[in-house]
Amino acid sequence: MIADIHLQPDDAHPINQAFHQFLTTHAQQAAALYILGDCFEMWVGDDVGCKVYGKTLSLFKELTAKGLPIYMMFGNRDFLMRQRFWQITGISHIKEPGLVKIGDFSALICHGDGLCTDDIEFQKMRKILRHPIITWLFLRLPQKKRISIGEGMRAKSQKYNLNKAENIMDVNQQAVEALFDAHPGVTHLIHGHTHRAAHHTYELNSQTFHRWVLGDWRPEMQYLKIQNGEASLHSWSPFG
Fold first, then answer.
1. Which of 43, 84, 188, 215 is placed for a possible disulfide with 78 were both Cys, Cβ 3.0 to 4.6 Å?
2. Dihedrals φ, ψ of 64, to 5°?
């Protein structure tokens, strides 16, 4: 499982190059690949994204055509993929929170931004941007206008995060517990968004709960491997 690649609109970018190498080497050893949001730095519609990220989409298609299942959920930067994207790549869309069962291992999966409830302004904007009417209207704007808006929002977000306290950009423990409460019997949660790869545990009612956080791709990729009923975090670099 991976998240937060933040592919740039330039195939020559080091992150894109590393991800393409990952798809043509390491990913092919997996039984399935899960991407938990923010695969792309920005997605302003299939008519734009499918051209800008054409090479990546072709590599996705090569993998799914060979029989490798790939599952993807929306992130806070790329939640506007529609039918054309799924058809071109052969990727299956997962809504969040999702519940996955891999052998004897079961876990809840989500991007993670919805758990950062201490960041009130972010949650307000998230609710507005994901409203069906807003997305419907946005996707009907001219391409240049959508690209301009997307780049402007990305710049504003980066500036906003520089002046934001670190703690409010992390997940809220009560939000995590509420998610587990809504899915009794599940004791593992996997998410991205915060870019803070780690394995957290806490005890409640004599039961241990696990929260696995996926890292980003700067400077090396962090991924979660599930094998023989157990999860473990690993690093991967195209430089070995």
1. 43
2. -65, -30
